[in-house]
Amino acid sequence: MATEELSATAKRVRLSEFTTSEDWWAVWCGGLLLTIAFAAVWFNRPTDFAQQFAESAYDVKVTSPLKPFLAKPGKWTDSALDAFYSVTVVEGGEDRITNKVPGIFGVFLAIGILFAIAQWVRGYCPAAFLKAFPFVFLLATLSYVLAAHSVIKAWNLEYALWALMSGLIVSNTIGTPKFLKHAALTEFYIKTGLVLLGAGVLMSRLMALGVPGIFVAWVVTPIVLITTYLFGQKVLKIPSKSLTMVIAADMSVCGVSAAIATAGACKAKKEELSLAIGLSLSFTVIMMVVMPAVISAIGMDVILGAAWMGGTIDATGAVAAAGAALGETGLHVATTVKMIQNILIGVTAFGVAVYWAAFVERDSSESGPGLVSIWHGFPKFVLGFAAASIIFSLIHSSIDGGPMLVDAMIKGSTKTLRGWFFCLAFVSIGLQTNFKELLPYLKGGRPLVLYLCGQTLNLCLTLFMAWLMYYVVFDDQLVELSGPEPAAAIQSAEPVE
Predict the structure, then answer these.
(1) Is 149 helix (H, G, I), strand (E, B) or coil?
(2) CA angle 167, 72, 45 (to 5 degrees)
(3) Where are the domains positioned within the chain?
(4) Residue 432 pLDDT
(5) Which bin fits 228, alpha (ψ -120 to 50), beta or left (φ > 0)?
(6) Helix-strand-coil percent breakdown of the chain, rounded to 5?
(7) How many CB atoms neighbour CB 172 within 10 A?
(8) Which tens digits make up the pLDDT trace of 69-81?
(9) What residues contact 220, with CB distance under 8 A and at least 6 apart?
(10) Whole-prediction pTM value?
């Protein structure tokens, strides 16, 4: 009887995951937005769309009716107000009015209402979220305005940098007010944005990137993880094995998510987890800004540079933002490599748990981890990304005019929304990062040295493996990507957000 009650309880816990898990809610929110966005384009297409497409595909026009209601601040030079409302004289002497206010307010309502409902169902206070969200959204809007200045735009200083800075200034000066933390949902914003991004990553491109990407992510990552851990224990002699392992996993796999999963597997202390995450976030800020600039400055090919960033920058959202700085191809390559690497979160946690039980805590009476542990550590939002990619790849290839419909959906709504999600995520990262609180845990400097040495190894091995896989072993598959673009050649192109 007791066994049956435990089984029923375990089943209820598993089912509740679908309504309480942040990963699953990122899938539900992203899926709902994609459904609405595509339905809007589908029902707005011409009544004889198929016939028009068959006669002349180039003359058919499809737009999203949602586009006027979803916007971000526009480019400006002299007055910041021009980012919201501007009047320009076009050919013929007529005035063209550009009003971004309804679109920005539309994004605010869409995300605010959707996430308030999600938080309510997940068991959190929706009123607390709604109270804090306007302030977080205001910082995101300010970040977009700063990034839209003509001079700043020419220097390619993207919104992610300003979003991080705005949050960091608040958290490291006056301190982040407690009520704001209810809307600083970093991972939730990132994961939802990545589900939306899945619709733009077609399977044909994913397969072309995926095979070499597997080698980049799955060969380098375990080498760096094991080497960094041994270096920390044998050379640096860090007293805490769990701290060494969490830093190694955080740096080699994918940042916060990997650190959290690994910390549970090796029973790390809260302070150790905080230190690892702090190091990750700090270097993520630096790498996501410096790496695209270096890639552009030395003229490295976009595909090589993006794969390099995808395998080394810790946070998934930071990878997307850094990849976007190199253009559409850069975004897709970097994100794909990172997504492939994300799959290792559960595998890493499982392997660490087995190692800890077998070698570190041999006397532990607890049973070893099984498939449930892997599933529990697996980032479920990756399933949403993959599902969106598969569904819209099928639409793209099997429906007459599918490419136009998918393109209209992305450009008319989901591209704007995912940009806002990423921007909100980086504001949240800044609000949650206080450098002073991490100083006591850096005593002796050995954790910092461990991270620096491990990341240096990671950068070198990933760059070599990316070059070997994309340009030597699988170079023929890159034809589908329309060929590598020199990063310097796309500096003037509009970045994908």
Answers:
(1) strand
(2) 140
(3) 20-47+68-84+96-490
(4) 82
(5) alpha
(6) 75, 5, 20
(7) 15
(8) 999 999 998 888 9
(9) 311, 458, 461, 462, 465
(10) 0.70
